[in-house]
Amino acid sequence: MLASGTLTGAQLKTPKAAAIAGIVFSILLTATFWLFRRSVPADPLDQGEWLATGVNSAALAMNLIPFAGVAFLWFIGVLRDRLGAMEDRFFATVFFGSALLFLATLFAASAIIGAIIVVASTTEPNELVHSFAFRFSRATAYIIINVYAIKMAGVFMISTSTVIVYTGIVARWIALLGYGLALILLFGSYYMSWSFIVLPIWVFLISVHILVDNLRRRESVSL
What is the spatial distance between Cα 152 and Cα 103, in angstroms, rounded to a whole number? Predict the structure, then answer.
């Protein structure tokens, strides 16, 4: 009887952990995107005026990203734990691999922006913004985020949606929505500066659904 109760408790806590981690990731990444957008222009060929006015916001966003990354890894780990024996090896590889690549590219772009901020604090601003190193670094960060990171986010959404369809761990409509949003990321992100916000919003939906489902199961067990 004790073993059964312990197992039931573990099964109920696992979805709740995934939901909380997903919500934390969504909030942190959305805040990061908003801070970067209000301080750093979307144009990769900008003249660097933000180094004089928006450095604090960009620095705060850069420091939030590691915490968002940890929450995302926790979300992935607990979600895989919820799948258990239902996890398909092929889709699990794409699912996990695209998540890691997304974080790697996100961290790389953030590190480049962080390096620009550090150099700007020790260099004459006019000297830095007119240098080849600044233009190259700025363009590299833009390409990493808007080409590689966003595309990996789209692949992650497609693989996760497929897993959802086959296992039913969350509502099917969330998976169908994920397919549509992923296509936007894969083919339309270049034309939409706000497309980076798609992934955290979708993860937020999954997390809320898991949390609500967990509460319903807990109520049914208590009855």
Answer: 9
Instruction: Output DSSP code: residue 124.
Output: -
DSSP state of 56: H
Q: Which domain holds residue 106?
A: 17-41+48-222
9 inside domain: no
Count the neighbouring beta carbons within 10 Å of the beta carbon of residue 47.
12
pTM to 2 decimal places: 0.81
Torsion of CA 175, 73, 95, 37, to 10 degrees: 70
79 three-class SS: helix
Evaluate whether residue 3 is within a structural domain: no
Query: Does residue 176 belong to any structural domain of this protein?
Result: yes
φ, ψ at 202 (rounded to 5°): -65, -45
Q: Which of 148, 30, 45 is nearest to 100 (CA)?
A: 148
Domain count of the fold of the chain: 1
Whether the CB-CB separation of 134 and 112 falls below 8 Å is answered with no
Cα–Cα distance for residue pair 89/91, rounded to 1 Å: 6
Question: Using one digit for the tens of pLDDT, what is the confidence trace for 62-77?
Answer: 899 999 999 999 888 8
| Cα–Cα distance, 97 to 94 (Å, whole number) | 5
Q: Is residue 5 part of a domain?
A: no
pLDDT tens digit sequence for 98-136:
999 999 999 999 999 888 888 877 777 667 777 788 888
